Amino acid sequence: MNWNDNLLTGIEIIDREHRGIVDLINRVAPNLASMGNERMRDCEPLCEQLMAYATSHFKTEEDLMARYNVDSRVLSHHRESHSGFVEKVKDLAGRMAGGRGVTGSEFLSFLAGWLLSHILGEDQTMARQIRAIDSGLSPERAYREAGGYRTSPSESALTHVFIGLYTQMIRKDED
User: Fold this and answer.
1) What secondary structure letter does DSSP report for 135?
2) DSSP secondary structure letter of residue 37
3) For residue 68, what is the enclosing H or E element?
4) Cα first-last separation, the chain
5) Which residues of the chain are modeled with pLDDT < 50?
6) Angstrom distance (rounded) from CA 96 to CA 46
7) According to the model, what pLDDT value does residue 42 have?
8) Residue 171: predicted pLDDT
C-alpha cells in the first residue's frame, strides 16, 4: 500500500498508528500474496500483531472520540466497525489455522480493503468532527456540519489511493 496524504486524518497519534499498520501490511504482503491454503498456518504471528494493533489503536480512537464528546452515532458506528474487524480477523485466523480455505491473497485483500475503507471513510469522518468540536461547535452541530453521516470514502480519496497503488505496482514491475 502506498502511504499518501489522502490517508492522513490530521490527528497525529491516529496517523502514526495508521502508518504503523500500513507498514506492517507492506512487510507481510509479499509473503501473504504468494501463500496458498497449505502455508497459511504460518501466519499466526501476523494475526497476533493485528489483534494487538486492534486492541491498542481502537482504544485510542474510541478514547479520543469520548474525550471530544463526538456524536454518539459516530462513536457507535466506529465501535461496530472495530468489532467487525476483530471478528473477521479471528474468523480468518481460525480458518487459516485449520487449513480451511483461506489463501494469503484473500487475507491480504481483506486487510487492505478494510483499512482503506476505514481510514478514508470512518476515520476521516471522526477527524472532521473532532476538528469541528475543537473549533467550538457542539457535538450535534459538528455531526451535521462536518458530515458525520458520511462514513464511506469519497470518490476523490479512493481515486487518489488507487492511482497511488497502481503507480507503485508499475514502478515495481519496471525495477
Assistant:
1) T
2) G
3) none
4) 17
5) none
6) 12
7) 64
8) 63
Name residues whose C-beta falls within 8 Å of residue 130's C-beta, 6 or more positions apart in sequence. Answer: 11, 64, 65, 68, 70
21 within 8 A of 51, measured Cβ to Cβ: no
What DSSP string describes 115-134?
A: HHHIIIIIIHHHHHHHHHHH
Side chain identity, residue 40: M
Give the model's pLDDT for residue 131: 93
**Residue from 54, 50, 40 nearest 95 by CA:** 40
Cell of 26: 507492506
| 140: amino acid identity, one letter | E
Cβ neighbour number for residue 163 with a 10 Å cutoff: 13
Q: Which residues contact 20 (CB under 8 A, 6 or more apart)?
A: 53
At 46, list the grid cell.
Answer: 501476523
Residue with grid cell 467487525, as numbered in its chain: 84
Per-residue pLDDT of 113-164, as tens digits, reads 888 888 888 898 899 999 999 999 999 999 888 887 777 666 776 666 666 6
8 Å CB contact between 32 and 108: yes
User: DSSP class of residue 10?
Assistant: S
Closest Cα to residue 57, out of 4, 123, 106? 123
Are 99 and 37 spatial neighbours (Cβ–Cβ below 8 Å)? yes
Name the pTM for this structure: 0.81
